[in-house]
User: What shape does this take?
Amino acid sequence: MKQLLLDISPSALPILANFVPGRNTELLQTLGNMLTGRERERFVYLWGAQGCGRTHLLQGIAGMCVRNKMAAAYFACAEKIHLDDKEEADYVLVDDVDRLGAEAQIGLFNLYNRIRDAGQAVLLVTGSAAPAQLKLRDDLVTRLGWGLVYQVHELTDEEKIKAMKSHAASRGLDLSQEVCDYLLRHKRRDLPTLIATVDAVDTYSLANRRKVTVPLVRELLQAES
Assistant: This one.
């Protein structure tokens, strides 16, 4: 039981191929065009609520860079993070920009200017709000709004259910609407956690030779807590 419970955590590596687009089709296409050299803009800012997939996209791009033998620098922001000079990188990825402290904001501002002047690297930045709503220094906010700006839309409940059912089907599991509704009501609602829970439920049902039903899912989730 304990070992099964430990499996209820996102495990699949974030890649662009397993990002469910929902209303983000245009954004996903733009990122793909950047990776293949068909998009000329080199500065992109992505924003959206927690769990919408911002980090997934940045880590997916980092993975694509590795596979395409390009250099990528990924920064998970914190108040006092040091943003190194990464002009040699093909892609500089800065996640959660609104967590930067005063000195780190100056560092990103200077890094932005160096990348712009060098004219080669791509800079992708994420935050929780549109540029004008960020509580950052004005000159940095201005820079973040200069390039492409996309809101990353969270999936609707219907899209999450479709994704859960599709993933379950790939494991040979027929996931009922009733079970999907229960997971949305009683589990964290971000898609990676929901998908990981589907995997754990499938494993638990096979180990106990029981059909996947709401009572079985409730049993597993209650044991987890």
Remarks:
- DSSP finds nine helices and five strands in the chain.
- The chain has two domains: 21-151, 155-224.
